[in-house]
Amino acid sequence: xxxxxxxxxxxxDVDDDGNPAVYTGVHFEDLxxxxxxxxxxxxxxESGADEFVFLDITASADGRETMLxxxxxxxxxxxxxxxxxxxxRTVDDIKETLRAGADKVSxxxxxxxxxxxxxxxxxxxGSQCIVISVDARRxxxxxxxxxxxxxxxxxxxxxxxKGGREGTGIDVLEWAAEAEARGAGELFVNSIDxxxxxxxxxxxxxxxxxxxxxxxxxxSSGCGGPEDMHxxxxxxxxxxxxxxSIFHFGEYSIAETKQYLAERDVPVRL
Length: 270
Description:
The protein has helices at 37-45, 59-62, 68-77, 91-99, 109-113, 116-125, 172-182, 203-212, 226-236, 245-248, 254-262; strands spanning 5-14, 20-26, 29-35, 52-56, 82-85, 104-107, 130-139, 148-150, 153-161, 166-171, 186-191, 217-220, 240-243. It is an alpha/beta fold. Helix 1 (37-45) runs parallel beside helix 3 (68-77) and helix 9 (226-236) crosses helix 11. It starts with a strand and ends in an 8-residue tail after the last helix.
């Protein structure tokens, strides 16, 4: 059985002085300063993390490129697989991000607005480099293609773009299947509803995506501790669990999380 991956993530923006900084928020809003991206990357590289994710969280909304100079500095400190996302819209953007030191690119808005980008990226650099990030939110109407019964309510999941700021009307499960068919190597599934709450992952969302595709699914948003990772691995069959706040603020370490999972027969790399 393949081991489950534990992945810390930093959300990077520019501060009031124009310097890169890590921020943590709730529901993609109310961002609070958390630390320096390069120093945090170095710490996570030494912590036993399986991979590391760097997201430039306002690049797409602001219509600017990813801060590649910072990516280069982070890549110099990280010797585990590095995924970088934010503002990637073209094959050239993918190329420049990989050249800066990323092993994979995470694409959200650029792929939703031009799905052919997935095909082009996979063809040029290999599917293993192309991670499609899905920023999902719950909808309680009948406009979705796949309506689920969740706790007695009819729910479907909508893809959003530009850092969760804009809805698209696209059903998450339809988009996941299309992204896989176009050559995505992984799906990075974020829940806007669960983001920053520490109330646990949106397990129905993660389960629905995992059951729709064969592509590995990275579960993100809402992790409050190792027990939430255990739940998303065992109840939703996620391939990786991503977390931010619990690691950033020292509530749990990577080692503690892996030990908790290993003691409960979840395969992890110790």
